[in-house]
User: What shape does this take?
Amino acid sequence: MDCSDHNEPPESLKHIQAFMQLPPLDDSNAFKYLEHLKALRNLCAADPTHQNVIAEHDQFNGQLHKLLFDSTSLPQNIQLMALQLLANAIVQNSSSQRKIWYHYGEAIVECCHKPPLGRHTDILLMIVYNVLKSAAVLNMEQQSLSVAVRVWQSIVQERSEVSYEFLHFLFEHFIVYGGHNTVRYYAHLTPTERISFLEYLVNYLRQDSPNGRVHPFILKYITKEFNMKSDRILVCQPNNAQAPTTDPLPAREAYAILRVIASASGSELYGDKYADEHSLFLNVSSLLRCLAQVGKQSQNIFTPMSKLEEVALTSNISRDFEAEVSFELKTLLVRCIANLLYKNSTNQGYCIDTQLLPTLLECTNMDARNPLLKEWSILAIRNACFGCPEIQAMIANMTNQGTAQNDIIDELNLDMGALRIKPSRG
Assistant: This one.
């Protein structure tokens, strides 16, 4: 029966009063704490009146806040029950959402991403998501995106394989439906947070966009960002005379953007969105040629690692290069080029005009810094040739000047690992 039919206080208020009279939590009364919290949780699901009673009781919320967020040894079962109570108290109730967020919002945002993550994490994220979706609290968008990004950072740091359902709901809100607004909030993230957002986006694309397609405006914005920021990669060398103290984050952000573009441009879901992005093709091609040239000028992070002692499993050389922004960079650039050349006559024309083909041919050599570089280079050359007689003729007219230079081949005296172009027969 509805509690409004009674003249006596609602049952939820009785449990609140009983809860507040309990002595400080210890093993002897833990069951009583759990009993009242469970009753309140269940009442919230039965009638919205109870949600309002709980949300409006300042003293109870003050005590519950202290128990949840100030206690250093709160039993997990009580923590989970208290959080489930808060989650139930806000379901489909804008009024209670505003009041609960007033009491707990700051603490929830602070605790969402704190390690170790666990069952409580998804409940906290559920509260954030419900308040966000109802628009009951103003200016929640920026805060919610930051929460999602920080939780993702913690997942990566902990190498957690747990899937937090409401984390994906939050990201879905931004990357599938957000569009222009998401771009605005993304721009106000810190550089480290932007990189984490992009890393989540790469993960989402690799899973074939399970919760819906990425909003096209976001992909367009990311392309524009790369065109503006790609040159930062060229100044990320530690010994670059022009920028000896360059902050590595801008280069890493440009690298993260490139990873998104490489994944999206090769996807059947998004490939057509890049058909007219000719400035992107020119930018990526120019960057690849520049990196190839810089790598030849001196020994630096863009110089191919092709010596046996560098790539052998028994090598004493540090694997720190795998954490450098140069690791897999050429592979990503060539991968983008291959995708952007696919059935695109305009980009094939630019491939000829910019003399990109020799650089692609050079990339068919082994390079430990760039796994799968050879394979992506061959695909890029294939896509350049497909339906383009001019490039086919360029390939046909090349002459064989001997085995391509490869230190591993020289050391082992083996005929392997390099692309051969046979001379044309006249």
Remarks:
- The chain has 21 helices and no strands.
- Residues 385 and 393 are 9 Å apart (CA to CA).
